[in-house]
Amino acid sequence: MTTEEHVVLVDGEGNAIGTAPKSSVHGTDTPRHLAFSSYVFDQEGRVLLTRRAEHKTTWPGAWTNSCCGHPLPGEAVEHAVGRRLSYELGLDAARIDLMLPSFAYRAVMANGIVEHELCPVYRVQVDGPADPNPDEVSEVMWMPWKEFAEGVMNGLLAISPWCREQVPHLDDLGADPASWSPASAAELPPAARL
User: Of the listed 67, 68, 119, 163, which one is catalytic?
Assistant: First the structure.
């Protein structure tokens, strides 16, 4: 028997204030909850883009960054990044670095469904090819970072709203993602520090 996955609910200062079933937190009145975003890079410095499965509740079929998800209650965010990369894309992370420790956003779909997340952002290095899980990802594509970042910031690429907000912050870290200086885990919001 499997138990339903829960997410960590957070207040405006990033403190954990409880948990809720994942299935109950994505609607028209979505409470702020802990999540993560990751940008996967290969040895050539290309970023992995994914297209969300068509049956997803939020932004079905949208192109987005490599992998997003929710840490389980009591799970370190970095561990959740590795867990979801393995599940969604069949990838083993060679390295996981925290880049944007306090990123947060709220976005509303045309049908009124809201995404409302405290969402630290990670850079991940991998060595192998992606093997998408069709329950999560319908397509993948590798793209040079410069081309991707410019396309997002110039409005030329249709991309998820959280990715559109994250890319300028990542671009501010420098033109070469391999040279970005990781943030300290001490900068994570309280709910994300374990």
Answer: 68
